Amino acid sequence: MSTKIYVGNLPYSVDDASLKSNFSEFGSVSSAKVMMDRETSRSKGFGFVEMASLEVAQAAITGLNGMSVDGRSIVVNLARPREESNKSSGYGAAGYTATQRKDVGYGTGGYGGGRY
């Protein structure tokens, strides 16, 4: 079973290949991905590495956490599972849904309409 590792405080010069090569010293790397900003195509300063086993991942965390990369001390730890968002509005599988809040929008008073 593979283990996912969070890598934070990365310098903007780090790319997927260099991240993978740094972690491959500790064992088999399934994937390495630096998160990029959609608008600027620049690194967001963090990424994720997926390693073959928990033992290999722990060795990489111990060896690389706090290490200086281009003058920045990187943070390396186990990645937490992604939390489900409770978005109350926006486009989704069922189409557009308005906000679930009762104190905003039309029909509640204030600007743009309301009850009289």
UniProtKB/TrEMBL annotation:
Keywords: RNA-binding. SUPFAM superfamilies: RNA-binding domain, RBD (SSF54928). This is RNA-binding protein. It comes from the Bacteria. SMART domains: RRM. Residues 3-81 form the RRM domain. The keyword RNA-binding applies. PROSITE patterns: RRM (PS50102). It comes from Curvibacter microcysteis.
